[in-house]
């Protein structure tokens, strides 16, 4: 387990609470409404899965929740910040830097950096001194099983290994909010399983509120809660008991 671990809010307490989110995009001369009044909340220590078909508004929802894309209506209360979107761009950026980790389908790694440098970079942005950043980067990479790949660049790593670097990068700053957008969809079953288990651990062991967006119903097994979204609306919201030993099988 990562020695840098701090525990966030008490497991089960609210980490993020959004009400009435509406987002419209202009296409040509018309607007399409991609979020149609979405209420959403997620708790510390839990994996909340947002499931829905392609185009249903999942990525837009993550962007609105995490301070990346301003909704047209509604509000987001996150951690100790009331109405996140009512703050200045600088304050919102700082909120994201301090509290949010992101994992995307496409890994988003820097081609010229080795694994350790990928992770150190975000810590240095946060003002962590170099030696400590290196120590924490190595610890995070060891936690995801990449202790033997510290000096390798993305082009010499498999897809599963690249996604584990992205997870180490997100976990190294021990974010209270961890957003994963289709984190397994570029991976085979075996690597997808490694990734979803690491996200599960981020919730259980680090106390993060993990918000995982996917269109793969097999990931439900690891979730505390499954929210279905379709055409910009929440269809249902169910609590369940996660099975940390579930298997994904191969594609
Ligand atoms: N910047 C944008 N401009 C116009 N339309 C967009 C933009 N971003 C997303 N959309 C549209 O909004 C809808 C929902 O997109 P998205 O949130 O990415 O869905 P999902 O992640 O569930 O696949 C899609 O129809 C998409 O084409
Ligand atoms: Mg998406």
UniProtKB/TrEMBL annotation:
Family annotation (Pfam families): ABC_tran
Descriptive protein name: Putative ABC transport system ATP-binding protein
GO cellular component: plasma membrane
Alphabetical list of PANTHER family matching this protein: IMPORT ATP-BINDING PROTEIN (PTHR24220)
Keywords: ATP-binding, Nucleotide-binding, Transport
Domain ABC transporter, residue spans: 16-250
InterPro entries (alphabetical): AAA+_ATPase, ABC_transporter-like_ATP-bd, ABC_transporter-like_CS, ABC_transpr_LolD-like, MacB-like_ATP-bd, P-loop_NTPase
Single GO term (MF): ATP hydrolysis activity
PROSITE patterns in UniProt: ABC_TRANSPORTER_1, ABC_TRANSPORTER_2
Native organism: Brevundimonas alba
SMART domains for the chain: AAA
